[in-house]
Specification:
By secondary structure, the chain is α/β, with parallel strands linked by helices. It has 9 helices and 7 strands.
């Protein structure tokens, strides 16, 4: 029986899908949420195998306290799923400073805090999984969502280095890159204001917002199948380092890598000309 620690347990999101998949295979789950009352009825069904914790992942003190509570309750954390996150609209030039900082606080620095809080226990036991929920946007950029992409790009780089550092201690790292998935992730965009401070970008940002609003509830990705794919990857004889979820996401990432290789090879002579 494993113990999972899952951030971002908002109903209708990936967090609870992970929790239900873990519980279905007989494991125990600590799931965090800003509004834990929303999970009370859901948790009752599972009895003492579920621990719901109130947590703002951008508060480092709360993160450490939540991890300690979960470890004391279940005796250790075997699987960490860094799922909490969201994005805000805005151009690179014209996004408000507050939006930029909020984006990185939630999507990057919170991930760092949770990892730092969980890793000592995993290292001591010589075993563990860290699953970092990135995004296709962490590999393929999207205009109007540049700071979200930048934060997810950072999660990608962080995870690559983390994998090398923790592997000697028996801890494994998987980065998951979902494409558009039918969760409630797009639901809040309807009421999200376009706080663009440079007028020239307002039409672009408004069109990006409209596209997300239109796509809400029509996303191609199935979160249940996505989580099952992640669990299959974790249980594979040779687990992958990253896993893209969804047909459109796979196609976009594949095209990006193929185009990058074409450009890299086209400039090989120039690149190799710069050594002493």
């Amino acid at each position: 029986m494993k113990t999972w620690f899952i951030t971002g347990g908002t109903p209708g999101g990936f967090g609870l899908v992970y929790a239900e998949a873990a519980l279905a295979q007989g494991d125990r789950v600590a799931v965090t949420a800003r509004r834990p009352a929303e999970l009370r009825e859901w948790a009752e069904e599972y009895g003492d195998r579920v621990l719901v914790l109130e947590l703002d992942v951008t508060d480092a003190e709360q993160v450490r306290a939540a991890v300690k509570t979960a470890e004391e309750r279940f005796g250790g954390i075997d699987v960490l799923v860094n799922n909490a996150g969201r994005g805000w609209f805005g151009s690179i030039e014209g996004a408000p400073d507050e939006t930029i900082r909020r984006t990185f606080d939630l999507n990057l620095f919170a991930v760092v805090e949770v990892i730092r809080a969980v890793l000592p226990g995993m290292r001591a036991r010589g075993d563990g999984w860290i699953v970092n929920m990135s995004s296709v946007a962490g590999l393929v950029t999207a205009q109007g969502f540049g700071y979200y992409s930048a934060a997810k790009f950072a999660v990608e780089g962080l995870s690559e280095t983390l994998r090398l550092e923790v592997e000697p201690f028996g801890v494994r790292v998987l980065v998951v890159e979902p494409g558009a998935t039918r969760t409630k992730a797009f639901a809040g965009f309807q009421d999200q204001p376009v706080d663009e401070v440079v007028d020239a970008y307002v039409p672009m940002v408004e069109s990006v917002k409209a596209a997300f609003v239109h796509h809400n509830g029509k996303q191609e990705g199935d979160p249940v199948r996505g989580v099952q794919a992640v669990i299959s990857a974790m249980n594979a004889p040779v687990p992958p380092h990253r896993l893209v979820l969804g047909n459109a996401g796979y196609d976009a990432v594949t095209a990006m890598h193929e185009n990058a290789l074409v450009e890299l090879r086209a400039n090989e002579k120039l690149s190799r000309s710069t050594d002493f």
